[in-house]
């Protein structure tokens, strides 16, 4: 036992705990910075590029295509690591996206139509124009299937770039970008469901519909523990995987059924907290360990249960998923998918390919024209309003920054060109170049347009 700074309370420290805390404190501060996720994502993409273009390129190919599976009795499932990440792990990413979308619609920036209308219009314009420019730039045929690639915005990279601007980017501008990106993600989910599902096995799809009905019923009867939703959501993922509809949609559908209302009203919990505090003090016996004080254990358990009831399951699950998704799943997705082999001798012809050019055109120019143009028209007709403390020039900078497609664009490219490695290579090359141009261009645009607040 060791005394705290107050000298009266006693705090227990494990033998190595203080030394470990000194190591972990800088790490925790790094993890909670807004720019950290984008830096980690960038590092993973660079590692993949270097690995895929080094003397160990063959090992990268073997790593991404390594078979991983499981079997229970006579049933089993085996896929490559590439497929597990894209079809499995990314379902958790879409689960987080769905939770964020539901929260924003209920209590966030999308809950007030007056505040939400401009980012909604911007997101719609930022999806339509890139797709149109892409279709205009390709000759048709198999290449045309990639029209959904430039519609997406990588929220981690875009927000990370804004965070690097510090006081030159007001918080309201970041909020505008978050709202825009969430609507953008919803659009991408719809595109994946509608445009990138070729064949449907209706028996499996009906089974998925039944499982979705179970999730909705769980919400309606008041199931508030996340675990049952995860279990049924896993079976929903399996049903969609078998149906031909992309399995990651199970993440969004599950998220929309997670309860978003608190069991306890905050004022009620405040009173309950006072009652429990009084009971705690009455049960406390100086020098006695809580392990031998059953009454004190009961009070502490009631306090824990109360905390879970005043916090909504959606809020708790979103908070719990943030670190594993942001710091494990998305960087690993980048490592698996961003390893584009670059043949410098063929780079010129690759850059001239219609798919590469169309992706760059759509992400950089299409996003900019779509977002800026739609906002200008909306404001011209008195629809919506600029976020407070922002200028239209900063909205234009966000329009350029939104051309960072990366994660979602690569994901859609994998769906658009299955079994067509050359077209996929063209698309990924275009995504990487466009994301670099949009990121650097948007950063410097906003740096010039923004005024640091003292």
Keywords summarizing the entry:
Na+/H+ antiporter like fold, two-stranded antiparallel sheet, 454 residues, mainly alpha, disordered N terminus, 4% strand
Uncertain runs = 1-8
SSE succession: EEHHHEEHHHHHHHHHHHHHHH
Fraction of residues in H or I helices: 55-70%
The overall number of domains is 2
What overall geometry do the principal axes of the alpha carbons give? Answer: globular
Amino-to-carboxy terminus distance: 45 Å
Question: According to CATH, what is the class of the largest domain?
Answer: Mainly Alpha
What do these coordinates show?
With 454 residues, the protein is mostly helical. The chain has two domains: 41-53 and 77-196 and 246-261 and 312-449, Na+/H+ antiporter like domain (Na+/H+ antiporter like fold); 270-309. Helices cover 70% and strands 4% of the residues. It contains 18 helices and four strands. It has a two-stranded antiparallel ribbon. A two-stranded antiparallel sheet has the order 3-4. Helix 11 (266-283) packs antiparallel against helix 12. The radius of gyration is 25 Å and the shape is globular. The two termini are 45 Å apart. Mean pLDDT is 86; it is low at 1-8.
